[in-house]
Design brief:
Length: 240
């Protein structure tokens, strides 16, 4: 992988603003093959590989080194990074796609307002029902790290593929960890955020992969992007 491999979201809430950010920096992106095409071209960076992928695939590519750089959600980077923040390098926070990853419980749990309340409730629940509280989430690593850091162990994870907020109502879980912007979905599903249940304030970021194989050509293209996008800190280029 010699030339720079770059990716932005192929759809969803981050796509348009990612394209607008690159265009405003002087690097317009053109999708090839129409709206459903997943190849693209980017002007102004010379010979680079431009790809359109899901936000989750971009985060995975940055963490495993199969992509040099890209735009994705910070929540996904933190969740997919095996060892935490050293697996990726945030080059610029982009100011859009803001959302919070939080811990939420049913509003009816009036005595559970903090993570320590949740641990106590989990211990009581296991004693009474001989099973652990189920936490539904698509953020498996983020949840494990956050709960462990707060000595909360009386739970087990249930991986969610979507509509996580419905899990307590449908009975497939008791607690959730999910992402929220306006709070409307949480409210619609009778859920409340724990007072110390904010796991991560996330936004869209332009990030690079320290684990990727960086040729001089790839670094040179990234330097051009740094200049156009007014990304400070060329020392970052030494770190990747
Ligand atoms: N209300 C929100 N719900 C979900 N993601 C949000 C929200 N607000 C901002 N985001 C950001 O957008 C990212 C997901 O974007 P999008 O849904 O377009 O991608 P995706 O590939 O469909 O991801 P997923 O399939 O995990 O939802 C999240 O990881 C987060 O960083
Ligand atoms: O706090 P809110 O504004 O209610 O947003 C939070 C919801 O938005 C997302 O769902 P959505 O259906 O938008 O996208 P998805 O396909 O990623 O689930 C996310 O999965 C939450 O369910």
């Amino acid at each position: 992988m010699t030339r720079l491999s770059l990716a932005i979201p192929s759809k969803g809430r981050l796509k348009e603003k990612s394209e607008a950010w690159l265009a405003s920096a002087g690097f317009p992106v053109t999708q090839i093959g129409g709206e459903r095409g997943y190849q693209a071209e980017i002007e102004g960076l010379g010979d680079v590989e431009m790809r359109l992928l899901s936000a989750r695939e971009i985060a995975q590519g940055l963490v495993d080194g199969s992509l040099h750089a890209g735009v994705t959600g910070e929540d996904l980077l933190h969740d997919l990074a095996p060892t935490g923040e050293s697996d990726f390098e945030v080059l610029k926070r982009l100011g859009f796609g803001g959302a919070d990853v939080i811990v939420a419980v049913p509003q009816a749990w009036v005595d559970v307002d903090t993570m320590s309340d949740l641990e106590a409730a989990g211990a009581a629940f296991r004693k009474a029902h001989h099973r652990r509280l189920r936490v539904a989430t698509k953020y498996m690593r983020l949840t494990r790290r956050f709960f462990a850091a707060r000595s909360v162990g009386e739970y087990r994870l249930v991986e969610s593929a979507g509509a996580t907020e419905a899990a307590p109502t449908t009975g497939s879980a008791d607690v959730i960890v999910d992402i929220t912007s306006t709070g409307a979905t949480l409210k619609a599903n009778g859920l409340k955020i724990l007072s110390d249940g904010l796991i991560l304030k996330s936004e869209a970021v332009f990030a690079a992969s320290p684990g990727a194989v960086w040729s001089p050509e790839a670094k040179a293209s990234l330097e051009v992007l740094f200049a156009g996008a007014a990304i400070k800190g060329k020392e970052i280029l030494e770190k990747i």
